[in-house]
Amino acid sequence: MEQGSLTIVGTGIQLVGHLTKGAEAWIQQADKVLFALADPVTAKWLKTLNASAETLPYNTNNLRRRETYREMVERMLAEVRKGINVCAVFYGHPGVFADPAHNAIRLARREGFRAQMLPGVSAEDCLFADLGLDPGKNGCQSFEATDFLIRRRRFDPHSALILWQITMVGNLGFYQEGGHRRGLKVLGEVLGETYGPEHEVIVYEAAVYHPVCEPVIQPLPLSKLAEAKMTAVSTLYVPPHAEAPVDNEMMARLGMAL
Fold first, then answer.
1. Which of 35, 31, 36, 12 is closest to 22 using CA atoms?
2. Architecture label for domain 5-117
3. 220-258: per-residue pLDDT in tens?
C-alpha cells in the first residue's frame, strides 16, 4: 500500500448542523483539506477546523463540466501522491451528483492508495423531510433531468418522481441564469404527456441557513414549469398521478387478502 490517503466527506446541506462527527474528525486530522462547497460561509468555517483548507479548482471557462471535473480529480490526487493524508469536502452527500469524488476514489485505489467516502445528508434527505414524503409508501424514482429526457427513461406515474439539475437541462457547460427556459419547456411538455398539463408539481430547494431561511417549496402546474423562479440548485418533485392498482392474482399467490 502506497503512503498517502484520500478521505472524501460531505458537509450536508445546512450550515454546520448536518456535518457528522466522523466527517469533522477527518477534516481536523488531515494533512491537507480541499473543498468544493456551495456557500462562502461554510467555506470560511471549514478553515477554522483546518488551516490547510483550500478550494478545489472550478474552472467555468471550460466548455464542458467534465473537463473541470477532471481538473478537480487531478488536484486531489496530486496531494495524495505527496504521501500525505488528504480530506476532500463536498457539499451535501459527497457521492450524489459528484463525479469528481467517485472518480478520485477510483483513481486513488487504482494507484494503490487508501481511499474512502463517508456519507452525508443530501438534498433528497431534506426533500423527504420538508415535503413529508415517505419513499416507502408508493415508491420513489430519481433521475438527472437531462438523462431522463435524452434516454427516454421509463418511469411509473403511480410513484413519486424526483428530477435533479432541472436548470441544467440540455446544458453540458455551467449554469447561466435564465438559460434554462428552453429545457424546462421541453421537460414540462414531456411530463405533461403522462400526467397532464395541470398536474401539480413542486419546485424545491433545501434550506442552507435554516432556521433563518426556510426551504423553497413552490407548487405549480406542469404547464407553468418554464415560468417558475429557479436557481442552480432547484429540484422538481412530481407527486404520483394516482395510486397503483392491486394485482389480485398476485395477492392470491401470496395468500393475502385486502
1. 12
2. 3-Layer(aba) Sandwich (3.40)
3. 999 999 999 999 899 999 999 989 999 999 999 999 987
Reported as a single tens digit per residue, the pLDDT across 164-190 is: 999 999 887 776 776 578 899 999 999
58 part of the active site: no
Secondary structure class of 150 (helix, strand, coil): helix
CA distance 232 to 234: 6
Where in the sequence of the chain do the CATH 3.40.1010.10 domains occur?
Answer: 5-117
The grid coordinates listed for 59 are 474552472
Q: Which of 64, 66, 69, 109 does the annotation list as catalytic?
A: 69
Whole-angstrom distance, CA of residue 193 vs CA of residue 181: 19
Catalytic, out of 58, 64, 65, 151: 65
* % helix, strand, coil for the chain, step of 5: 35, 20, 45
* Cell digits of residue 73: 480529480
Q: Which of 58, 70, 81, 91 is catalytic?
A: 91
What is the architecture of the domain spanning 123-238?
A: 2-Layer Sandwich (3.30)
Q: Is 237 a catalytic residue?
A: no
Cell numbers 423553497 correspond to: 216
Is residue 195 flagged as an active site residue? no
| Three-class DSSP category at 140 | strand
241: DSSP letter: S
For residue 176, how many other CB atoms are within 10 A of its CB? 12
Global pTM reads 0.91
Provide DSSP, 165-200: -GGGTT-SS---TTTTHHHHHHHHHHHHHHH-TT-E
